[in-house]
Amino acid sequence: MFSPQGPSALELLIQALSSVERGYDLLAPKFDHTPFRTPEDVLDACADALTGLGPFDGGLDVCCGTGAGLRVLESLCAGRISGVDFSAGMLAQARYAYPEAEYVRADARALPLAGAFDLAVTFGSLGHFLPAERPAFFAGVHRALRPGGVFAFPVGAPPPLASRAYWSAQGFDLAMRVRNALWRPPFVMYYRTGALSALRTDLVAAGFAMPSVTPLTALGRRDDGSPKYGLVLARRAATA
């Protein structure tokens, strides 16, 4: 799962026993050498799906981490691109990779941005928000967008009940719940808390129009022919 440049088992254990912020500060220098970074083919598929929705001026990568999503924004946005994250370590890595972008250190549940962006994206972040926290997260993104702005993020199709992926995700979430019941501070990262129906409900409650899902067919199909991934597109209503 990890390249030789990735973290050791001990480093991962220390990270898992830390808070989310501290854990990512520790992991940041080696994060891009782990399977936790969003794969290039997912980024490319999302960029392709967003190309026809522009033009976009300003772009925002929410929970930007080391900046994988900034490459998508660079290819789509004519104006400034920005990344926001609450891990100073991850932001330092992003600044090194994308020095032309602007950065804000902030908690995504209380984004200090308003009406400045035409496109917002997030990759691999939703598992870090409990269902009760998602409304604040989505409301902050809604505020950060200009009228008519688009919020986009990829989602994977639910794995079949009999698949290894399904039971691996279930096992991971159970381990995290046990860890958080026994150890403080908590480390919030769950795979099975973001059903598409719940995400849509929370996006609409935050002020977005009813989201659509664009199939990312370049990333493959399941045995039943349905796409393995889709891109959720939520738009802030345009003013008159």
TrEMBL record:
Where would I find the Methyltransferase domain in this sequence?
A: 60-149
Cross-referenced Pfam families: Methyltransf_25
UniProt feature coiled coil, ranges: none
GO BP annotations of the record are:
methylation
The UniProt record lists the keyword Ribonucleoprotein = no
Domain of life according to the entry: Bacteria
Which GO terms of the molecular function aspect are on file?
methyltransferase activity
InterPro entries, per the entry: Methyltransf_25, Methyltransf_Superfamily, SAM-dependent_MTases_sf
**Protein keywords:** Methyltransferase, Transferase
**Which PANTHER family does UniProt cross-reference here?**
METHYLTRANSFERASE
- What is the protein name given in its UniProt record? Methyltransferase domain-containing protein
Annotated organism of origin: Actinospica acidithermotolerans
